[in-house]
Amino acid sequence: MIHVKGLTKTFTARGPKGTRTVDAVRGVDLEVEAGQIYGVLGPNGAGKTTTIRMLATLIRPDAGTATIAGHDLLGEPGEIRRALGYVSQAGGVEEQSSARAQVTFAARLYGVADPSGAADRVLKRFDLAEIADRPGRTLSGGQRRRVAIALGLVHSPPLLLLDEPTTGLDPQNRANLWDRVRELREQGTSVLLSTHYLEEADALCDRLAIVDHGVVVAEGTPAELKREVSGDVATLRLDGPERAPHDRTTLDDVFLARTGRSLRDTGADA
Ligand SMILES: Nc1ncnc2c1ncn2[C@@H]1O[C@H](COP(=O)(O)OP(=O)(O)OP(=O)(O)O)[C@@H](O)[C@H]1O
Ligand SMILES: [Mg+2]
């Protein structure tokens, strides 16, 4: 579904001390198979949003190549946009108009055959039918997040890009959203999501890439990643001869082994 090779982005930021460059993404490779929930796990500033925005054709990479659903990222941006739904980290929902109006409008923009029918279906699927006619400003955080996802799904793309879909949600809303994402996978939609929650990456993702300072520092299934470092971890913590190494290894141990820092210390996880 996604093949990414050497994706790179440097920003030039003008500040009070003159011009500064930020190497946000420094040669990222990703392979995402169809039907997977794929996670990009990393602390603040790791380059998650920049990577996702490049895949969504919203910013142009400085270097690297990518194909999504068989289309070339740089050469076929229109096909790429039809092949994916993108839900930004801020999760834009308009304050003044209703969820139904917003989702129907998105369906029209995408050229969906029956825009109001498609909007009805996706709103129902995300349990939004009852609040669909209220203005956006009256919706709760969890409802807004679901509307934002409905906006990204109304054209039934094979791939959904979710940038930190559960940040700021309470545990109940987070668990609810995990179930929705799993349902998407069951129905054949591939999902690439970013997160800084270790627990979310572990529980939800089939595979993940751990990113730090714009590079992938580890990649695999959660179990593989933990198994790879369980030897190191067992020697790091000489605190129990009969400890079963990878049962107790966490993704934070993986991050620590690869970066020398704890993801929890970055303030990323609760
Ligand atoms: N438009 C921009 N101009 C300048 N610097 C930028 C721009 N966008 C991102 N950056 C910088 O690039 C780096 C990566 O940012 P990015 O938003 O991709 O990280 P992130 O992993 O999504 O972080 P977070 O978890 O906080 O959302 C950061 O240092 C950020 O300040
Ligand atoms: Mg981000």
Question: Could you name the key traits of this structure?
Answer:
alpha/beta, binds adenosine-5'-triphosphate, binds magnesium ion
What's the SSE blueprint?
Elements: E1 2-15, E2 18-32, E3 37-41, H1 48-55, E4 63-68, E5 71-72, H2 77-83, E6 84-87, H3 99-109, H4 115-125, H5 141-153, E7 159-163, H6 171-186, E8 190-195, H7 198-204, E9 207-212, E10 215-220, H8 222-236, H9 245-248, H10 251-259
Parallel strand pairs: 3-8, 3-9, 6-7, 7-8
Antiparallel strand pairs: 1-2, 1-4, 4-5, 9-10
Bound molecules: adenosine-5'-triphosphate and magnesium ion.
Radius of gyration: 20 Å
What is bound: which ligands? Answer: adenosine-5'-triphosphate, magnesium ion
CATH third-tier fold name: Rossmann fold
Number of helices: 10
Name given to the CATH architecture? 3-Layer(aba) Sandwich
Estimate the mean pLDDT confidence. Answer: 91
Task: Give your account of this protein's structure.
37% of the residues lie in helices and 26% in strands. The chain has 270 residues and is an alpha/beta fold. It has a single domain, classed as 3-Layer(aba) Sandwich (Rossmann fold), CATH 3.40.50. It has a six-stranded mixed β-sheet, sandwiched between helices. Strand 7, helix 6 (171-186) and strand 8 (190-195) form a beta-alpha-beta unit. The longest helix is centred in the middle third of the chain and has 16 residues, at 171-186. The chain is globular, with a radius of gyration of 20 Å. Adenosine-5'-triphosphate (ATP) is lined by residues 11, 13, 22, 24, 42, 44-50, 89, 196.
